[in-house]
Amino acid sequence: METHVEGKKMFLAGEWVDGKQWIDVIDPQDGSLVDRVPAASKADMEACIEAAKAGAKTAARMPVFERMQIIGKAADYIELNAELYARTISKESSKTIREARKEVGRAVETLRLSAEEARRITGETIPFDQSPSGQGRVGYYRRFPLGIIGAITPFNDPLNLVAHKIGPAIASGNAIIVKPATVTPLSALMLAEAFFHAGLPEKILSVITGRGSEIGDSLVEHPAVRMISFTGGLETGLSITRKAGLKKVGMELGSNSPVIVLDDADVEDAVASSVSGAFWAAGQNCLGVQRIYIQSSLYETFRTQFIDDTERYIIGDKQAEITDMGPLITEKEAKRIEQLVEEALAKGAVLETGGVRDGAFYSPTVLTNVPENCTLASEEIFGPVVLLYPIADLDEAIERANAVDYGLQAGIFTKNLDHAHRAIEELEVGGVMINDSSDFRIDAMPFGGVKQSGLGREGIKFAIQEMTDTKAVCFKLG
């Protein structure tokens, strides 16, 4: 298959462009060179934004059926070359080949949902005569594209999270500039390739590779960019909000997600779901299970089974079909996790299993008796570490689940509808999964958090709402 990624180019306003400087893309498993991509300059970003101004006009004029066709063709292209996309994801990121294949499937679905939602960008009629001054008037409102969307994406889902920015932006008639994670740019460039082959008009889409310190501020601060859609860490998110100025900002900033297991739960299901939710993608998952609160009467049974399942996890070569978990994205990240665990152990936590680092690999780790004054207990770990706590009842579980500054998603395992509805009402999160771990999501659902977990909602329909503005129209009749 012809590929522009192999040519070490970035996708600038519909053209494949070389750079004067380069960034190595490294496989975290063995430190080998996967590819090189351009290290864009501030001038490159400014040129990109100027081109996107024209692209936004083109995108806004594009009929809905054309948007749908182009997005659908891009989805077809990815599906046709699914294994190549999966291998690329696995090589440049932490994901095993099986995890990468699932991400490719989700990205295809994300784009097809985007094409479908393009036909549903609708408004409503307004009864102006509800007010005496409105007599003799009729009207409605419509949704219009914002113009230029700036998207900054993370390393942990290097294809699908980019699709979650590009699909809704094009579906809603916007131009979009994507700055992918520096360590995983290849999947984003391959997504641009799919739109290139699908016939997307020039200047609507750019995927510009480079370091955030060089090009990030230019994208965030430019007044022509009308929205910043960011997925990443809290500190970067706070910095963006200070710099963005008067524009829309949508952010998903992670969490330290809780799961509650009550004494009437299906233990095997709760264990299996929570183990998967804790260690998927080496725990580098914004929805990843971090804190599990188990009712005391069930605690020992759950703890034993959870440890047994964790110790059966196969760690190793990402490309091997049998592997359950690969390395973290860098050795630096693995060392960070190691230090957090050591801090918890020094303060009295008990290591039940795991706690071993080998380069960028860190074994699936289970801790108990973790004091509340540990970093692990209150901040996002973003690694393969899970904390188990016994609780007396649902009241205690909800109180402890809410006692942090994050609130993305939560899970609860129970057969009691009253308990489920109490959790829905009282958990301070953007989503509650009943008889699932916090790590459940479909790409059509509204997705986002409260408190420090972010602003706004993703999920195709909801992202389109964020990427459009309403315009009211009123006719005064003669």
Automatic annotation (TrEMBL):
All copies of domain Aldehyde dehydrogenase, residue ranges: 16-473
Keywords: Oxidoreductase
Ribonucleoprotein recorded as keyword: no
Cross-referenced InterPro entries: Ald_DH/histidinol_DH, Ald_DH_C, Ald_DH_N, Aldehyde_DH_dom, ALDH-related_metabolic_enz
SUPFAM superfamilies assigned: ALDH-like
Pfam families: Aldedh (PF00171)
Gene3D superfamilies: Aldehyde Dehydrogenase, Chain A, domain 1 (3.40.605.10), Aldehyde Dehydrogenase, Chain A, domain 2 (3.40.309.10)
Source superkingdom: Bacteria
Family: Belongs to the aldehyde dehydrogenase family.
PANTHER family (alphabetical): ALDEHYDE DEHYDROGENASE
Protein name in UniProt: Aldehyde dehydrogenase family protein
